[in-house]
Write a structure and sequence with these properties.
The chain is an alpha/beta fold. The protein contains 8 helices and 7 strands; from the N terminus they run βαααβαββαβαβαβα. α6 links the parallel β5 and β6. It starts with 16 loop residues before the first strand and ends with a helix.
Length: about 230
């Protein structure tokens, strides 16, 4: 097993290296691409969540063998480093292994990773996904934002992935909400599913607001292409 890999396609926009810690993800996002990419039954993928066998040992061995150092490694693409309702202690071991080897982490979660913030420094990134689904109404949503605020207060670099945007109004509400505690935002459209959002108009409005608020932002390629059509 080589846990560390180089992302391809749209994932490449998030980082140069990545690790997927778990076999599945319980969050059941309707837009999730992972079951298709992994050729897994969707229900099985969302219900069978466990650490990949031997991942910590394999990670340490790969880092040593390939002399990986000074890199920022993304956690995770095809799963969540903090799967709700499941033991995520392996995530802490993975972070320790990465940090002890002279590398850094870029976390992206829909869960609550606050218990591992003590492992992170100003060289790491702690990020959450705010896609507009259940925002403000789900207890996990509050824990997610609270953890982001805590990371910011500790001097850890923070970021928010607004990808995919599923609700235009909630996007702008949430952008204002996290602006004081975030170092970077990434914004992307909903792909492969119907949406009533007029993407070109939305993208220009979102970019204009980011500029006015002085935010460091990145528009994902698929949204940027819509913005450039007219």
């Amino acid at each position: 097993m080589k846990p560390i890999y180089v992302p391809k396609g749209k994932a490449k926009e998030y980082g140069d290296y990545a690790v997927n810690i778990y076999t599945g993800c319980p969050h059941r996002c309707f837009y999730c691409f992972a079951p298709s990419v992994l050729h897994r039954d969707r229900e099985q993928f969302h219900s069978c969540v466990a650490p990949r066998e031997g991942i910590v040992e394999a990670l340490k061995a790969q880092i040593k063998r390939e002399e990986i150092a000074g890199k920022t490694i993304h956690l995770c693409f095809t799963c969540d480093p903090y799967p709700a309702g499941h033991d995520s202690s392996v995530t802490r071991e993975v972070i320790k292994a990465i940090k002890d080897s002279g590398n850094n982490v870029q976390i992206l979660t829909k869960g609550d990773g606050s218990r591992d913030l003590d492992l992170l420094t100003s060289d790491d990134w702690y990020g959450i996904t705010l896609d507009g689904i259940g925002n403000g109404r789900n207890p996990l949503w509050k824990a997610r934002v609270d953890a982001l605020a805590e990371a910011h207060s500790l001097g850890i670099k923070t970021w928010v992935s607004f990808e995919p945007v599923t609700d235009e109004r909630e996007f702008f509400v949430n952008l204002h909400l996290v602006a004081p505690i975030v170092d970077k935002v990434k914004i992307g459209k909903l792909n492969y599913h119907h949406s009533d959002i007029k993407w070109a108009e939305f993208g220009r409005k979102a970019e204009d607001l980011c500029k006015k608020m002085g935010l460091d932002y990145y528009i994902k390629d698929s949204l940027r292409k819509e913005m450039e059509k007219a």
